[in-house]
Write a structure and sequence with these properties.
By secondary structure, the chain is an alpha+beta fold. The protein folds into three domains: 129 residues, FAD/NAD(P)-binding domain (3-Layer(bba) Sandwich), CATH 3.50.50.60; 57 residues, no CATH class; 109 residues, Elongation Factor Tu (Ef-tu), domain 3. 35% of the residues lie in helices and 23% in strands. Helix 1 links the parallel strand 1 and strand 2. It is elongated. The structure holds flavin-adenine dinucleotide. The site of flavin-adenine dinucleotide (FAD) has 28 residues, from helix 1, helix 2 and strand 7.
Length: 311
């Protein structure tokens, strides 16, 4: 028997186990530092688990930015539709939301994870929780901190599925980076890819508008532009549209120390029409009434026009 050790029991590790366990002559052990598996996956299901998107494949692939060429061939082998079918095989139906995103009908990750673990256990995958991987022994065996003390495990092949470096309390803390660097493995440093951003709102704007959504809106950073919505927070901005633009925002801040997020507050109205509508006489209307009546910009959208915000 060939023994394969998978370290990390998030969706990546579980999927690796699923691929390996039917192979004859392979025994699969999966290790995780946490007391139970798939904790981040479960957290992902709390706000409504978005499993994929229904948009045409070329647009979907383009979302992977500079990694699109590598990801495209993976998605050819297992794309959004295949993922939906795979989930259906676990007895979980999915639906396409108004935004085109795909969700399990119950919106949660827990029923999916439960069914998946049941299937993997039934297929013979051995689970070892509370096993924190610490690196290697001189003889190549794996070192784990386990409840009974340090244990060493020999494996014929190792798959590392350790997640990134966010939400450390759910298990993925990025502590594996130095372990690989010490072994001479080239590692791209972990960077935030899906995050909110700080903005220095004025006290007035923060008190009045924190918690409010800006929608619909088209947001652009450099060449990248997308319609959707996001939220004003006490300290900045967050939400789906911001996450979609996180990478170019992050890159601009790393490069220039700041980033400019350009907002089209009146999507669907051409610039010419906007100019013509706003050029109509204001009469006795205040500026805010004029904006609201002529082009439908009011509330937090109108306030954002007068707000000077710095990152
Ligand atoms: C609030 C929130 C909402 C999200 N919403 C969505 C969503 O709607 N849709 C979506 O697709 N994604 C969503 N995500 C992202 C999704 O959860 C992750 O992309 C996914 O979990 C990554 O899977 P992974 O298996 O690569 O890593 P992880 O799920 O992070 O799993 C890595 C595992 O490795 C273990 N591990 C790490 N280091 C060690 C070690 N040294 N020894 C042993 N074990 C170790 C960890 O305990 C963990 O269980 C969300 C994430 C968060 C935090």
């Amino acid at each position: 028997m060939l023994r394969v050790a998978i370290i990390g029991a998030g969706p990546a590790g579980l999927m690796a186990a699923e691929q390996l366990v039917p192979v004859d002559g392979v025994d699969v052990d999966i290790f995780d530092a946490m007391p139970s598996v798939g904790r981040k996956f479960l957290m992902a299901g709390k706000g409504g688990m978005n499993i994929t998107h229904s948009e045409p494949l070329p647009a979907f692939v383009a979302r992977y930015g500079s990694r699109s060429p590598q990801i495209a061939s993976l998605l050819d082998a297992f794309g959004p539709q295949a993922l939906r079918e795979w989930i259906a095989g676990l007895g979980i139906a999915t639906f396409v939301g108004t935004s085109g995103r795909v969700f399990p009908t119950e919106m949660k990750a827990a029923p999916l994870l439960r069914a998946w673990l049941h299937r993997l256990r039934g297929a013979g995958v051995h689970f070892h929780v509370r096993h924190r991987w610490l690196g290697w022994q001189a003889d190549g065996s794996l070192r784990f901190a386990a409840p009974q003390g340090e244990v060493w495990v020999q494996a014929d092949a190792i798959i590392l599925a350790l997640g990134g470096g966010s939400w450390a309390r759910l298990g993925s803390d990025g502590a594996w980076v130095p372990l690989l660097v010490e072994r001479g493995v080239p590692v791209v440093l972990l960077r935030p890819a899906n995050c909110g951003f700080d903005v220095a709102w004025s006290a007035y704007f923060r008190e009045r508008f924190a918690g409010q959504p800006i929608k619909p809106v088209i947001a652009s950073v450099g060449q990248k532009s997308q319609q959707g919505e996001f939220n004003i927070t006490e300290n900045g901005v967050e939400g789906g549209l911001i996450y979609a633009l996180s990478a170019p925002l992050r890159d601009a801040i790393e490069r220039d120390g700041q980033a400019t997020l350009t907002l089209d507050l009146a999507p669907g109205r051409s610039l010419e029409r906007l100019i013509s509508d706003l050029s109509k006489p204001q009469g006795r209307d205040s500026l805010s009434n004029h904006l609201r009546r002529r082009v439908g910009i009011d509330g937090v959208k109108a306030a954002s026009l007068g707000t000077k915000a710095n990152r």
